[in-house]
Amino acid sequence: MAGLADSGSNPDVDLLYDINGLAKDAPAWFDRVMEYVGEYGLLLGVVLLVVWCWWSVRRRGDEDAASTVAALIWAPLAAGVAVLVNVPIRGFVERPRPFLDHQGLEVLVEGKTDYSFVSDHATIVMAMAVGLFVAHRKFGLFGIVLALFGGFIRVYMGVHYPTDVIGGFALGTAVALLLSPLAMALLTPVVKAVERSPRAGWLVRAGGRAADGQDAVIPESRSERTSERDLAA
């Protein structure tokens, strides 16, 4: 697999130098910002999108709130599964980081000693973004845009080849989509049970409303209606 890192007329390496070359021409403060965004910011951004989507769904309280929340739970789980799948892939390919095989790169993050293919960052962020897209199209599109930008930054930082990032995008997308039906079949009944719970129903619907649109605290509601009928009698 060492041929993946060979230079010459390799467009992967050429694109690496073109994108990473932008870091050389940029001010030091801008590189520090890109470093932070590439290491933490984009992942945090997608996580916040998932939380924002959950808050929006539970506040709106639509009939399909349970299935949407189940899909939102699947988003981070998909990222975790994708990273586990990536472990044997990285061990099989054993592709060194680009700065180990190529001179003159502007490396913004030191201490990267693990293998380069497939990019964990690209895998995690894209898996979460696609999982978010399964739950909510609008939020998911924003997440996918963030994931694409994050992949660009990883190459800009000099820690990944473009194909490392593309491989991460493909892996994250495949795991999030292919395992989504199974995940939804397992998670949706659990979330619906939570939705019907008097104490935890607020996690799915604001005010703990059950799927039929009534309050989850049904016993109190019934007792109140019964007392009202008695008074009317």
Characterize the structure shown.
Pfam families: PAP2. Residues 221-233 have a biased composition (Basic and acidic residues). This is Phosphatase PAP2 family protein. It comes from Streptomyces dubilierae. The chain has 233 residues and is an all-alpha fold. 71% of the residues lie in helices and 0% in strands. The chain contains 9 helices and no strands. The N and C termini lie far apart (85 Å). Residues 1-8 and 209-233 have low confidence and may be disordered.
Percent of residues in helices comes to: over 70%
- Supply the number of helical segments: 9
Strand content: under 5%
Using the CA coordinates, give the radius of gyration. 23 Å
Note the overall shape. Answer: elongated
Q: Report the biggest beta sheet as strand number plus sense, adding barrel if it closes.
A: none
Write a compact overview of the structure shown.
By secondary structure, the chain is mostly helical.
How would you summarize the topology of this molecule?
Elements: H1 11-25, H2 28-60, H3 65-93, H4 98-101, H5 120-135, H6 137-156, H7 162-178, H8 180-195, H9 218-232
Helix pairs in contact: 2-3, 2-5, 2-6, 3-5, 3-7, 3-8, 5-6, 5-7, 6-7
Q: Keywords for this structure?
A:
71% helix; 9 helices; mainly alpha; 233 residues; disordered C terminus; disordered N terminus
